[in-house]
Each structure stands twice: as structure tokens, then as C-alpha cells.
Amino acid sequence: NVFNYGEYIDEQVLKNFEKEFGVKVNYSLNSNPEEMYTKLQTGTSFDVIVTSDYMIDRLIKEERVLPLDKSIVTNLDQLSDSVKNLYFDPDNTYSVPYLWQNVVLCYDTTKIDPVKVEEKGWDILLDPALDGHAFIYESPRDVFMMAFKALGYSMNTDNPDELQEAYEWLVKMKQTIHPSFVTDEMIDGMAQGEKWIAMMYSGDAAYASMENEKLAVWAPEQGTNIAIDCMFIPSNAANPELANQFINYVLDYDNAMMITVETCYTSPNAKVLEDVTAPGGEFEGVEGYLPRMGYEKDEIYQFVKLLNAETPELLIKVKMQ
């Protein structure tokens, strides 16, 4: 039983795993880490879950994650240095990077001046000229990250006043441009020109820009996230041995290559990453495929009790304004 985000795997990898191991993969989808956490709270059993770094941080602290069996998960040596030594699991005791990305702006250069986007960054979403022309990804932490960065705050703040300011920024955005809050619908939506701009995951933006040459991708200078989605085995998994086999299988070069080519998200496999960005590679020169790294205002999400408790409800209130 595998629980993952939508549009986030090559289905042939699942079929090949089923054939090689003589099993059936029950593949379920969730929209965001908060939805996944709620599912786990109800006692639903999954064997492998893919979710965001800060949520795995929380689950490890709550002792709801099984350690990996490294006699089975032997492909850890294929990981890129960029995704090693993560703060919440530095030795990959409990989790393995799956794909990684930034949150970016993806926009139509025939509708919006690139100079304006690069100047304003996240604050471009307060421009009345964009009324009715924007997608926003319906993910509480990502939406509030955007507001925190626009205001010059850390996206891992635990300051209630800063959270309130971010909420007010988002309400202003909502009332100014009336964006469509969606999930995977924005991928084809931007590729087909339904909207002018989107707050979007970089892998989705890379795909959309490959499909539509009018689109550009920009990581605002106010800062953004470095998000590393990881695979883990929850403590109530029914088939932990098979779960370890699945994780190891996904890490392998051929399968990692299939997944990154299908999803356009950045692979954690070092050799895959090298090959797809090299001259003649699938993502040579593609904006958005490689996340911005080493920029001082970018951060990795951490589990923050205040944000985890408040942002889902506050996002609902923003959408109601």
C-alpha cells in the first residue's frame, strides 16, 4: 500500500515492481502533508508514504516511523550529496529522498513583464491587473511560506504576530486577484494558457514551460523553500519488508530516471541528475528543473507546532474572504 502525491510517479515503475516481486501495489493519492497526517491519525495503514520533509520530522519525533532495513535498502549510495544529511534524518535511518524542488512563480511572458516579476517577486500577486488570472497551490505551508517571504520573515517562524501578518497578506492577495486554489489541475492549466501566473512547484513549472514556450519560471529574491519529499515506512505498516524493497527499487538508476522524466521533478539519484542536465539530456537548460541551491534567503521546512496547527484552518479562512 503506497500513499503518494498526484502526478508524482511513472506508473510503469509500479507495474515493473509488481511483475518483479509478484505483488499488487495499491496506490493511493493525497494532496498535501496535512491530509496525509489526518489519514494516519484515523489508523489507516500504508506501507510506504511519500511526504514533505517537515512532516517526516514531526512523525519521527512522534515515533510513528519504522527504521529502514539497510540490508535491503542498499541503493543509498546512489543519492546526490545535495539531498544527504538532512536535518531531521541525517543518516537516513528512517527516510529516503524521493524527489525535490522549490516553490516558484510560473508566468506567461506575453501577459506579464518579466522585469516586473523579477522586481516584485511574491508581491506581484498583489497586482490588481492579475485579477482572475492566477493559480495558487492549495497547500497550507507553501501558501504561508510565500506570504512570510514576501514580508521578510522566516517560513519557519513561531511568532504569532508574524503569522497574523502573513494571514492578512494572503487575505489582501485573495481579495485583489481572486486566484483559483487548486492542486494538480494547474499543471495542464498553465501549459494550456488558462491563467497568466501560478505559485507552483518547480517540477510542475518545468513541465508546463516545456509544453508552452511563452512560460517563464522565477524563484523570487525574497526567498523560497527547498523542499525534499521523502519515502518512509509508517509504524503501522503491514508489509515492512516489501516496503523496504519498494524504497530500494525506486532509488535505483533506471527507476529514478523513469520517475524524474515523467514528473519533471529533480531526482535525488546523483547519476540521473548528472545525465538529465548534461548536454543532450532530457532537462538540459530547462527552467525550474534544478532547484535553486545555496541562496541565503531560501530555507528547508521544519516542523513548527504553531504553523502546523494554525495554517490549515487559516488557509480555509483566506479562501472564504
Describe it:
This protein is α/β, with parallel strands linked by helices and about 325 residues long. The protein has helices spanning about 10-20, 35-40, 55-60, 115-120, 140-150, 160-175, 185-190, 200-210, 240-250, 255-265, 270-275, 305-320, and strands spanning about 1-5, 25-30, 50, 65, 95-100, 105-110, 135, 180, 195-200, 215-220, 225-235. The strands form 2 sheets. Strands 1, 2, 3, 4, 5 and 11 form a 6-stranded mixed sheet that branches. Strand 1 (about 1-5), helix 1 (about 10-20) and strand 2 form a beta-alpha-beta unit. About 45% of the residues are buried. The mean pLDDT is about 95.
What fraction of the residues are assigned to beta strands by DSSP?
15-25%
Total strands: the figure is 11
Residue runs with pLDDT of under 50 for 5 or more positions: none
* Class by alpha and beta content: alpha/beta
Q: Which value, in Å, is the CA radius of gyration?
A: 19 Å
- Large-scale geometry: globular
* H and E order: EHEHEHEEEHEHHEHEHEEHHHH
Oligomer: single chain
> Number of DSSP helices?
12
Distance between the amino and carboxyl termini: 38 Å
Largest sheet: 6 strands, mixed
Work out the helicity level.
40-55%
Q: Average pLDDT value?
A: 96
Features:
321 residues; alpha/beta; 6-stranded mixed β-sheet; 11 strands
Provide a brief overview of the structure.
The chain has helices spanning 11-21, 33-41, 53-61, 114-120, 140-151, 160-177, 185-191, 202-211, 240-251, 253-263, 270-277, 305-320, and strands at residues 2-5, 27-30, 48-51, 65-66, 95-101, 103-108, 134-137, 180-182, 197-201, 215-218, 227-234. The protein has 321 residues and is of the alpha/beta class.
